[in-house]
Design goal:
The complex is a heterodimer of chains A (319) and B (325). Chain A is built from eleven helices and seven strands. In chain A, the strands form two sheets. Chain A has a five-stranded parallel β-sheet with strand order 1-2-3-7-6, sandwiched between helices. Chain A has 319 residues and is of the alpha/beta class. Chain A is globular, with a radius of gyration of 19 Å. Chain B folds into two domains: 182 residues, 3-Layer(aba) Sandwich (Rossmann fold), CATH 3.40.50; 128 residues, Rossmann fold, CATH 3.40.50.920. By secondary structure, chain B is of the alpha/beta class. Chain B has a seven-stranded mixed β-sheet with strand order 3-2-4-5-7-6-12, with helices on both faces. The chains are: A alpha/beta (319), B alpha/beta (325). Chains A and B meet through helix 5 and helix 6 of A and helix 3 and helix 4 of B.
């Protein structure tokens, strides 16, 4: 599969954006500057970026509680995201949503959701809507290994298969649902085999290889857009951090965490782009510097932004 | 004027709105060629075809959730649940998703959808096919709840619900589907959130809705024979509540009985009672009384079911009790 140079560079840049955005959020949360709870996607950058790079701007995604990466990968504005994490009026949701609740319909982002597995029927409905409106759009549902044990996952795959819906189900298997390892609660080693029960293609890929993710999702998106129905893609990956920031890591062996950090997705992709002369060393460094500067600008923007007026808490419930 | 059943009124409302707006679609169990378990979608599949009227797998979370996703992406879905008792299976999609999406995403998404579902007892269908869950969904901010009592109201309210840009749950009482009533031939809408005075009276206000409207009207015939003129207010929409119509009536009659089929605790009757007490207590000449279903699951045996549900005699008895005070 020939991948245009600009797509490769975009994937590199977006993975860096996620990496630096999340790192900064981690630091700001640790100092107590950010309120609430945050779930970081450090280490999982390739799944979000490889998947979204295979989508058109008006294609739909649904995200999860660990959703910052998906939103950045789909082209979301990091300033509005950071401001939302600060609970500011300039945030995506005007301070009403926070880290877990960001939507941007212009970019096809139908929202991140805090209930595990609940985005899957919504994405399925977006795919059904696209089909009924003959809009040629495709939907993609991100969810984790934990969600693959929810009824919503199974109901949705069956329905999408029966109706031949234009949707791609992307399972980010980071091995743990909070503190419970997937092999303790599921006997199937590769979650993609669950596709067989619904008569649709299922594939497991290295979720830390952005090109492997891109190629698998691209194939599934082309299939979906061509009227051939849904696919399930399992991306094996790992979160560097605990389920949420501040949670003690009592459930994962240190060696396991370190081994996965060594397998992180960005450095090898950078080496590859340089080897294949897509970027020079200097260009690659320049992109990273620019991204870091941009993330700092987001923090400044969020800090300088006003808090929402308290009476806005009573606005916007219904039309 | 046409004399049509409640089911026919619903089918007309959906058919007219589907004809008017190509984004209105209908899905649920057996809503296609079968015509719906209570015949409310009869003829729609034939008229609009399989891209507008879709039969769903028995997967309530998926097809209600799909309606939420479809509503957020440009369609205006009507979803039919075959029995409202199964709304529990889809309640995450309604309570955690649909009801909150506009608000928690700061207005970036809207969810114009209608969920229609048959409610109610008096059918000897026992505990899992007889419930009315309006209390639960009225409790949740971001959901409107409509419960019509006549074919005329059903048609006009459903058309408004379909045009509403919010999440509307439209509960239809099973005992009403075959009831006939006069409905104009020409188009009309009934706004959501407006109650209707079904019978004017000076001595007592009976606030009620859905199937209980008929029971209250029957009771008021008996009361009238006793020289007591009851004013019967049909809420039609239980959330948002039309406080004004209730308050105007209670200020006049100075007595209030609330009649509802479902359980008493934390219910519409609790809410009406609290709002009257909070706002116009000084007008009341007697305590507020409630006639409700008893707080047990609906039992099967007809004698047991009749015992736990409100009957006309219960309403007459309650009115007699406060009118004598």
């Amino acid at each position: 599969m020939e991948i245009p140079k600009q797509t490769l560079v975009l994937m590199y840049e977006r993975m860096l954006k996620i990496r630096h955005f999340e790192t900064r959020v981690m630091e700001l949360f640790a100092t107590g500057e950010l309120p609430g709870f945050v779930h970081l996607g450090l280490g999982q950058e390739a799944v979000a970026v490889g998947s979204c790079a295979a989508l058109a701007q008006d294609d739909y995604i649904t995200s999860t509680h660990r959703g910052h990466g998906h939103i950045i990968a789909k082209g979301g504005d990091m300033k509005q995201m950071m401001a939302e994490l600060y609970g500011k009026a300039t945030g995506y949701s005007k301070g009403k949503g926070g880290s877990m609740h960001i939507a941007s319909p212009e970019l096809g982002i139908l929202g991140a959701t805090g209930i595990v597995g609940s985005g899957i029927p919504l994405a399925t409905g977006a795919a059904l809507s696209a089909k009924l409106r003959h809009s040629n759009q495709v939907a993609l549902a991100f969810f984790g290994d934990g969600a693959s044990n929810e009824g919503t996952f199974h109901e949705s795959l069956n329905m999408a298969s029966a109706f031949n819906l234009p949707i791609v189900y992307v399972c980010e298997n980071n091995l743990y649902a909070v503190g419970t390892r997937i092999d303790k609660v599921c006997k199937v080693p590769d979650l993609s085999v669950r596709a067989t029960g619904y008569g649709i293609p299922g594939i497991t890929v290295d979720g830390n290889d952005v090109l492997a993710v891109y190629q698998a999702v691209r194939t599934a998106v082309d299939r979906a857009r061509g009227g051939m129905g849904p696919s399930l893609i399992e991306c094996k990956t790992y979160r560097w951090r605990t389920h949420f920031e501040g949670e003690p890591d009592t459930y994962r062996p240190r060696e396991e965490v370190e081994a996965w950090i060594k397998k992180e997705p960005i450095a090898p992709f950078r080496r590859r782009l340089i080897e294949e002369q897509v970027l020079t060393e200097e260009e690659a460094t320049e992109i990273e510097k620019r991204v870091m500067k941009e993330v700092e600008e987001c923090v400044d923007f969020a800090r300088r932004s006003p808090l929402p007026a308290t009476e806005t808490a009573l606005e916007g419930l219904t039309a | 004027m046409q004399n049509i059943s409640f089911s026919e009124a619903l089918a007309q409302a959906m058919g007219e709105e589907m004809g008017r707006d190509p984004n209105v679609v209908l899905w649920g169990l057996d809503v296609g060629p079968y015509g719906g378990a209570f015949a409310a979608s009869k003829g729609l599949y034939e008229e609009f075809g399989p891209d507008r009227v879709l039969d769903m797998p028995v997967s309530e979370a998926a097809y209600v959730g799909a309606a939420v996703g479809a509503a957020a992406t440009g369609l205006r879905p009507i979803v039919e649940l075959q029995f409202s008792d199964w709304i529990t299976l889809a309640s995450d999609m309604l309570i955690n998703q649909a009801a909150k999406m506009r608000y928690m995403f700061g207005g970036n998404l809207k969810v114009p959808m209608v969920l229609r579902a048959p409610v109610g007892a008096y059918t000897r269908a026992a505990a899992q096919h007889s419930q009315s869950f309006e209390s639960i969904f009225s409790f949740v901010p971001g959901i409107k709840v409509v419960m019509p009592a006549t074919p005329y109201d059903a048609k006009g309210l459903l058309k408004s619900a379909i045009r509403d840009d919010n999440v509307v749950i439209f509960f239809e009482h099973k005992k009403l589907y075959e009831v006939k009533g006069d409905v104009p031939n020409e188009e009309y809408l009934i706004p959501l959130g407006v109650a209707d005075v079904k019978r004017a009276g000076r001595d007592v206000t009976i606030v009620t809705y859905a199937y209980m409207v008929g029971k209250a009207l029957e009771a008021s015939v008996e009361l009238s024979r006793q020289g007591i003129e009851a004013e019967v207010i049909d809420l039609r929409t239980v959330d948002p509540l039309d406080e004004q119509t209730i308050f105007d009536s209670v200020r006049k009659t100075k007595r209030l009985v609330i009649v509802q089929e479902t359980w008493r605790d934390c219910s519409i009757s609790s809410e009406v009672s609290a709002r009257v007490a909070e706002n116009i207590l000084e007008y009341l000449d007697a305590p507020i009384l409630r006639v409700t279903g008893k707080d047990v699951p609906i039992p099967f045996s007809p004698c047991l079911e009749d015992f736990v549900l409100p009957q006309v005699t219960d309403i007459v008895g309650a009115v007699n009790k406060i009118v004598s005070e």
